[in-house]
Protein 1
Amino acid sequence: MRYALVLSVVLTVPGVAAQKPDEPRAGLPKKGDAVVVKGCLRGPRLEATQISAAAADDAYPSGWTFRLQGKKDLLKDLRARHDNMLVDVTGVLKSELPEAVPGKQVGRTRITIGVDPYGGGRTPGSDQVMPVLDVRSFESSGVTCK
């Protein structure tokens, strides 16, 4: 009985160790790719809940906050009418996505400790900068963010 227990633990541990749930999946969009980012608009930033390549059906959960740039009249209209609302923004990535998202994913919620949401896109003790999204178009869901 003891050998069966030890054998089951030994066989289970490598499978658990091989899993890396906090690593982003391979195939994330790269700089220059057209993407659709769903999330909450907060002024000049978009707190993403999902990101997908515009030409593919692959969707990735996201914890990134994007800095929005683009045509001034488009951004002004977006912020004036849809601030603090859930929106779908189509654009082009102007920077690489960071290798890792700070915090821990628990179900559909990302928990971060010591991360200032108004910290200019940087996490304390890190020089990681917010990725930039060049906005081409947007669509509002009409739902307010909490």
Protein 2
Amino acid sequence: MLVHGLGGNWRSWRPILDGLAAEREVIAIDLPGHGDSVRLPGTATFAALTDATSAFLREHGLANADLVGSSMGARLVLELARRGVGGSVVSLDPGGFWSGAERVYFGVTLGLSIRLVRLLQPVMPLLTRSAIGRTALFAQLSAKPWRVPPGVALEEMQSYARTAVFDELLSDLARGPGQEGMPSESARTRITIAWGRSDRVCPPGQAARAMSRFPDAELHWFEGCGHFPQWDAAAETISLILSRTGSGTRQ
């Protein structure tokens, strides 16, 4: 099961969906308040999204499904692993491991970015058709923003603007508690944490903190990739996911 990041939806995975579906049964969800999924009652929080995803897995007989997450979704699948929910986990550039000025940078830069994205919606189709426009729009998210497919770029920018819970979740992520870890030798399934060397949303130095909190995890580096390796290195991301999932238990 694929879990997207803040403001995205299942279409965020389009660059790798066909490659994964050729080998595995794939479920790509819209988190509550994103895409076609209705929001949860009350204020949107990371904890509420995680609870809802855990309940969804259990209700649909997917409690042992392998989980792949991106950004906020990457943190979410790590939290599910910490709770003992789900099968093997691949976490792509997870949030929740910042500290000090990094936390402020995350909240301020994404807050300014979403305001600009909303203002530019009338001209977004034109901007995303241009390599120059994509470079300007995706400079923080991708190490190769001009290569992001125009269709993916437009859908992502429109999804960010349409996600009514974006501001609530951003505030919770930036000001709330960091991601908790789990003791060594307590993971019952395989956990892989992967990071782009050129990530400008969650800088790669945060990988050391993630590994210290999830000592049973394996670390994979994406060279020359930004925050979304499924965009910058689709083939490598597909290969990583297929190689680290499907076995059921730790190896």
Protein 3
Amino acid sequence: MIRRVVFRLHLTVAIAAGLVILILAATGVILASEELVTGLAERRYRVTMPRAGEGERIPPDALVAAAEAWGAGAEPPFAATSIEYRAGTDAAVRVHAGRERRVFVDPYTGEVLGGGMARLEGFFESVNGWHRWLSFPDSAIRRGRAVTAAANVALLLLLLTGPILWIPRRITRRSVAEGLLFRRGVKGVARALNWHYVIGIWSVVPLLMIAVTGMVMSYPSVGDRVYPVVGGAISFGSVTAGPGVGQVGGDVAGEVAGQDPLAAPGASLAAALAATESRIPGWRAIVLTLPRPRDAEVRVEVRAGRSGQPQKAGVMRVDRRTGAALSWESFADATPSRRAREFLRYAHTGEYWGLAGQVVAGLVAVGTALMVWTGLSVALLMFRFWRQKRSG
């Protein structure tokens, strides 16, 4: 009796939310490959490092000037807001204008290599819109978010009821093996059910993580209660900035400009870059936020891991006059709620655990799509059987 009630509940929820869950799974597969695809596409912007003694990196302000001159004829004109350095002697420098626009510049020659990949970025932005709010128009984004949020709840319910149905009626070695391994030589409903059970039981744990984090992010009222608990219960690692804050690179500004850095923004950028590189030798990306004319500090974001790993990132503030590192704020220094918010956001995509996490998330998304497909196929076959039985 209980098994029949659970089965009907599982089937009803699956039919009601199956299509939306299928869309979320398919778009999740594409988004899981975004970093890999964009990384391969950016290889065309690789640069050739000059031979020893033949060339050095151009100061950051010169790279910014080259990017702005290249984009001066655009509408609106290219106005740089930050400059990003990537580790590696063949990595181009990215000069950003807000979040949407960027230009790749050769750090040794100052040559502008290109203005990014607008079509590829637009494609992933469109896929992201489908994943988050089903690409509803701007006036109906809230409705789209409500639908995807309900789908996350439905997925969680399916994951809680599915293992109950997976348990064989008679527990034997053979019956358990049939639920854990793909069977050969079966077709039709038997094959669809076998695939559904096997994929579901092997992916239930990461899928629970995806469903729970998606639900928490979808409902702010739930997040407000969950974030403090998660932030206080989980231990988060962080990147250290070497020895205590001191006069790191204190003479760099004077060497570059020979004058007050507040009157020469380029000198402060060079000082901030030198200070950061000397304090965090294992960095993978350094983002210098261009200061306003009278700002006394330069904000520098440092990432020692991949994107989506906030525990391996931090923010350093550097004095524009002296090049001294004034402060370092790591992931561990954030409030528990903020740490939990960042953790749950990137745990949802698997990025928090680096490349391995993204691979697992992508495979699980593929498995989810197959589960939806096989589940709906079984439901359709059962409906046909029911109609034939009723008419007969």
